[in-house]
Amino acid sequence: MLSERLQLKMYLEPSEHFELEALIPVFHRFIRDQVIKELMIDVVDYSHVPDGPGVVLIGHAADYYVGALDGRPGLVYSRKRAAPAPEARLEDALRRLVNFGRLLEQDSSVKLRFRSNELSLRLTDRLHAVNDDASFAASKAEVEQIFGRVYGGSVAVERLLEPKGPLALAIKTSATPSLEALLEKLGGPPAT
Amino acid sequence: MTVANTWKQKLTSHMREDWAREIDIYETQIELRKKGKIEEKLFAETRLRRGTYGQRYDNGQRHDGEKTQTLAYPAGELTKGPVTMWDAPGMQRIKIPFGKLSALQLDTLAELAEEYSDQILHVTTRQDIQLHFIHIEDTPDIMRRLAAVGITTREACGNSVRNVTACPYAGVCNTESFDVTPYANAITFFLLGHPDAQDFGRKFKIAFSGCKDEPCGLTNFHDAGAIAKTRVIDGQLKRGFEYYVGGGLGAVPYPATLFDEFLPEEELLPITQAVCRVFARLGERDNRARARIKFLVKKLGIDEFKRLVLEERSKLRTDERWVSFLKDLHVTDEKPLKPPSALGPGPYPAGFEAWQKTNVQPQSQKGYSTAKVTLPLGDFTPGQARALSEIARKFTGDSLRTTVEQNLLYRWVADGDLPAFYQELAQVGLGAAGADRITDVTSCPGTDTCKLGISSSRGLATELRKQLSVIADTLDPAAQDLHIKCSGCSNSCGQHHVADMGFLGVSRNMNGRRVPHFQLVIGGQYKHNGGSYGLAIGAIPSKHVPKAVKTLTDRFVSEKQAGETFQAFVQRIGKKEIRKLVDELSVIPSYEQDPSYYSDWGDPREYTIGDLGVGECAGEVVPLVQVGLAGSEREVFEAQLLLEEGNSQGAAARAFSAMVQAAQALTREKNSFLGEGTDEIVSEFRKHYYDTKVFFDPFSGGKFAHYFFRAYEHQTEAGASKESAHQLIEEAQLFVEAAHQCYTRIAGALP
Predict the structure, then answer these.
(1) Domain boundaries along the sequence of chain B
(2) How far is A126 from chain B (nearest CA, A)?
(3) ipTM
């Protein structure tokens, strides 16, 4: 993936109902206890913004959002900088997203449930990932290859047409592994 | 075909050559700083002049509610300014002159928020857009992408001419003398990078208004304010400006002083240039706290200041730009996309009528209206920004404006299109009614992102919006029209001085812990360009502020006389009455009973760590200090009452007495033999707290102590004016506040 900046999103189960504000103390605790082994800096509450980023855990290299930026509630891993080599970026993002989702599923104060088989990917780097057919084809191939290997089964990738938005892909897998199982396949929680 | 690998390669030919060069130089300075070849202070000034700010926690420390943790940024010890870590996220301020944005510019801002920031565009109280959590190394590309659509961030911060603001209704307003847009445009680009505006001791803010009575321009608290005015001279209608100087909010608010009742339009640029030259030459440089032009105007007096400006004006070499813009004042005109039309008979979409009532105003051009987009706390997403730009293209043409109430304004909506226009806003979650009403609370960033924030102004604003929205429809119309503004500290970016109910973040020690509070500032005037400032009544624990708002609102509704404004109501019932409410709300449960009082809104971390010290010595000394500080607060309040009664001299004396009492309370901790004499108190305070810098605020240094020393030097002067007494009360309030903070620090309770 040429784009260093990307946002990988995993959706909440449709039946999930929760108050966004409940995540604020959880994210503060994640910073305090260094639950995520990345440099995490602050928590921002955008719950007042309709279809906004929600509650955000700000990090140095990446942010985590629980919100509804594309109109559907879910968890976003947003890589900003210091990404690994291009060929490792997508899998690394998936690993961090799954790890974070698993932590939220396990957290007794929020008990969120995610759908592991439905994701979206936005390449938020208009210089290196132009929103055109060629970039989509290249990204699609990479997504199919990585998700196919990690999930097993079939992987369907479609282009999300968001006028003037970044290149965006919808990903659906036939397999529905638990986040725990997925994380194990991805090598466990990231060490840094 | 060569594929561009960098934004520089891609965009350099798409922007003004001088802007491209400036950004290249800035990028080089970043590289030099990384190699240690530029000193950090110099680099800080460089980036600030390009609008690239620091943000909270950029010193590499963060208090997690239990202890201070080090944020181990990868760049290690490299800094981008004193005590400002290189890798720490920062804020990019983007100047939007007079708030005017094209659809293309909005699209670009959306891209930048999406790629570099936290998915939020934030409208400020001075019509700028801010992006938060930006990395310094991304800023040159951000600037290039902005420059390619005609936006520069140059002089968005630093000691320079900041964003020139103007009434967002300019050109379509029913009460304006004429459209101020071309004048604001001319002065923006005349002063941008002008040699006479590069050497100030502090920033310089300019605002334009089309009329005198409305609040949209808020010229009264600007360094220079211009209100459109016409006059018949020799039988011809001439344009000019009622021109003011020396206004400002900040820690001590000053109302602007009239410089010229009618400054002819051709003199607007040269006189402002001369003002800049006088400010650069004579303004304070060493003491930042006294460096705004308001202090210079006060020190010199308006007559002398004006004499100096006119003298400077007479020496200026003629510049053809002074008048060239007058040849085409239509350069900033907007052409409506649709022909005028009338609103149809309905039925209308759900919610339309409520939205129309509060967010739509007829323009001076028949068949058109302006429509406001209520942005909660000034925030919107990239997706919403793109939708808004498409709505502009579809309904109004290519421009909209940011407002100082942190909203967006569409102009030239054909009346017949209003329902469809509303429906499209509602589809992206932006169809809320209530713009500029009680629920539309204005707030600065506060502790969310600002390094100077003391309390969570955005957290409070969010909570007030939430609670008031539930009852908004049932509120009396008079209450719905009230304005609430919140600032996280005394720098007043939330403009709380000109609200009906303003809130200013402070902190207090209670029950051995630190508790977030807000000073209630009441009775400010929003209309008349922010015509007068409210005064602080007292500090309320943060968690009691919503209750205070409700109680005051209810009381206003039930007791107001016919046609009475909130300001007049406050005046009539008196501040003593309101103080009673503050006193009732000042009591909070112990930490053990309810720890939520010891956290701020929207932030569950404990606001206080550490004890105040339970040793015997502290047990004796601390209460004495507290008693003294409480007494000084009372005296500040009494000074306000005296001022209200018209006793300016008494008010000034009481305000000074409050300062003395606060200083005495603190100093007795160092010198238990301290007497009652003012000279001794001042001398001992200086020795123990000023010379040692113990009293110094981490950000403001000795500013608040200077207020005290100056008041001491002038205490024997007779004939305090209402204005000077008001200022002294403000300074006393801040000095007492600083004494509270100092006490908290020395007692070991501050993180």
Answers:
(1) 7-97+117-147, 180-328, 335-436, 438-509+518-569+580-596, 610-751
(2) 8
(3) 0.97
